[in-house]
Each structure stands twice: as C-alpha cells, then as structure tokens.
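ZP: hey, is the zinc ion complex queued? I don't see it on the tracker
AM: it wasn't, my bad. submitting now with these inputs:
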Amino acid sequence: MDIFAFVQKKPAEQVLEGHFALAELPRMIAEKAPGAPDEGGFQWRLSAADPAETKPYAAEMPEVKHFLEVRAEGEVWLECQRCLKPYKQRLEAGTVFALAASEEEADALPILEEGADVVVGSKDFDLAELVEEELLLAMPGAPKHEFGDSECVRSGSRKVHRQQKQDNGAEAGGKPHPFAALAAIKQGKTSK
Ligand SMILES: [Zn+2]
C-alpha cells in the first residue's frame, strides 16, 4: 500500500481494515504449534492516531507530521508449555507509531524513552510485516492453556497440579494488562 497517499486523506478517512491469513505471515507460522492446523488469521486496522493521545509524542517530535495507529487481533495455535498439546491463543496487538518519510528522517528523530515507535513509510508499504511485528510482540512469553482447562493434563501427578496452581497464582497476581506489557517491551525499542 502507498502509506503516503493514505496520510494525505482527511484524518477521519484514514482508515484501512482487512484480514491477514496465517499463511501471509511467515514469522507467525514459525511460532505455530507443530502439527496444528494452518487455520486462523488476524483482523487488522490502520488509522490516524487520536491526536489527544499523540500530543505528548508530537511535542517531542515536532518534525513528525503523521502518527498512525495499527491494531490486530485474532487467534493462532500455539504449543502449550505445560502439556505440549496445541491450543488456540487469542492475540491482541496494537501500537501508535510516527511515520517518517525516509530512513534519514527516521534517524534524525529523537529516541524517546516513552514514545511512539518510528516507522519509515514507503509507497509500497508492507503492512503485513508491520502487523506481524506487533503480533509477535503480543505473544505470551510462556504459552499455555488457561488454568483448569480439562485438555491440559499430563498423566496424573500431584506435582503437576501443584505446579498449575502456582502458575495460576502468578498470573492472577502479577500479570500486567496486555497493552501495558506491550508498552513495556516497546520502551526498549527505538526505531525500525
Ligand atoms: Zn496445556
């Protein structure tokens, strides 16, 4: 897609939506559980970012003319680390990014500790790659069935049950909101 033409539209008209099948996202296929079906895919949406949300970024990066938001959600089969069986994991990803007109412009932008990623635009912009990158960031660190899923059993051992309880406790107590976790990961990132 021509992302420069996209940002020339009125902000309210800067909306593009679609669906990527898993087969279109090679790095996601690599994450898929072995032997699991190739089904699944992701709805995505590219839009002008909410100016109220990007105000702080715009103050730090006055050179940037366009901030965009990309979101994606869908399901992929992952291998459960507890029982080693495939299970369907729902992923929700999203970010706001600053659109740079060229590599040079991107390099000249300040690196913000808490700010928008910088993405270099092009007339032949690879949206699938961008969506895929966000989905990879949204992947769980330790993929597993939800606690209590009857599918998720190893041949009856009490030790396993105790382990499951501990896992669950850790999630209930300290699991950050997915987008908060994403933001935390992205703080370490500068530009791409
Ligand atoms: Zn499992």
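AM: back. The pocket of zinc ion is lined by residues 80, 82-83, 85, 87, 144-145, 152 (CB under 6 Å).
ZP: great, adding it to the tracker
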